[in-house]
Amino acid sequence: AHFPRKPGSTILPTDRLQVAYAKYVPRSSSDDPRTTLNLIFTHGTGMNKSVWRHHIDQLYELSHAPTSTLPWKLGKVLAMDYVNHGDSCVLNKHKMGHKYYWGDTGKDVIKILKHEAVKNTADSRTIGIGHSVGGHGMLYAGFLEPVMFDSIIAVDPMFFTFHKFALDRPDDWEKHRRIHKAIEKNVRDLFANEEECFRWFRTVPFYTKFHPKVLDYFVNDEVIYNADGTMSGKSTTKQQVVAYTSKDVSTVEGCAILPFVTVPVLHLIGSNFSLSFPKEGTDFIRSTIPDCTGATVPDAGHMVHCERFEETIAIMVNWLSKR
C-alpha cells in the first residue's frame, strides 16, 4: 500500500500496510482490433472487492461473446480491498490505527495500477469504478494522477456532509460516541457457527436487497472458518467503525479537490435520497466536478449497484461504449 499514510492511520507511523486485490484477465488473447478497456474497482464500507465480481463476470461475458457488437473488449480488471477491509484487513492486523483517510484509497489505487503496469493510452484505456467511500477514493486518484484514467464511474460517492466536526465542541464528541455505538450494534465480525453467520448476512437490512449472486460472491470472500467451529468476518467491527467515523476529516479534504478532478466522470446514484446521502450532495458533486455526467436509477438507494444489478450494468455498458 501507499506509504507514508496520514497521522492516525496506523498504530506506529513506521508501520507498512499491504493492500490485497483480485486480478482478472481474458481467458484467451486474440487479434480483436477493438479498443481494450482495463478497469479497477473499489468498494464501499462493509463490503469487499468481490461485491463487484458478478459485475465483472457480466462485463466479460458481454464484451467477449462471439456475437458481441460492443466497440470495446474487456482487458485486465482489478478489484481491491481497501486497507482495513477484506483480505487487506487480515494482512494488516495489529497495524491499523484509529483513522482511515478515504483519500488514501486513491493513493493505493495508483500504486496498484503502477504495479500492474496498466497504462491509459489511445487503444488501451483505463477506467476507475468505485462506490461510496470507494468512489471517494477513486475520484481522489483521478485528481492525483489524471493522466492514468480515461474516465471514472463514481457510484454515489461520499463527499458531502451537513455536519462539521469541531474538536472544541463537546456536543460533537457526544454525537460521535452515539454514532460509534449505533454502528457497532449493526455490525458483526464473529459468529457461533456457519448457520448463524450466513443467516446474519442474508437477513441484516444492509444486505437483504442485494442481487443474490452479488451477495454470494461478497459473503464467500468475507468469511473465515475458524478451527473451533466459529466464523469470523475479515473486515473487523472496529475497522468498519473507523471507516464510517472518518467521514468528517475525509469529506473536508475531499470536497476541496472536486473542482480539480479533470477526467470525465459518470456520477451514478439512486433516486431515493437519505439523511446521509441528500439531494444537496448530488447537486454539489455534479455542479463542482468540471466534466460530470449524471445518471439516476429510479426507486433505488445508496446500494444501487448491488440491488439494481441489471440497470447498473446497462448504464456502465453505455458509458464504456462511449469511451
Automatic annotation (TrEMBL):
<dbReference type="InterPro" id="IPR000073">
    <property type="entry name" value="AB_hydrolase_1"/>
</dbReference>
<dbReference type="Pfam" id="PF12697">
    <property type="entry name" value="Abhydrolase_6"/>
</dbReference>
<protein>
    <recommendedName>
        <fullName>AB hydrolase-1 domain-containing protein</fullName>
    </recommendedName>
</protein>
<dbReference type="InterPro" id="IPR050266">
    <property type="entry name" value="AB_hydrolase_sf"/>
</dbReference>
<feature type="domain" description="AB hydrolase-1">
    <location>
        <begin position="39"/>
        <end position="305"/>
    </location>
</feature>
<dbReference type="InterPro" id="IPR029058">
    <property type="entry name" value="AB_hydrolase_fold"/>
</dbReference>
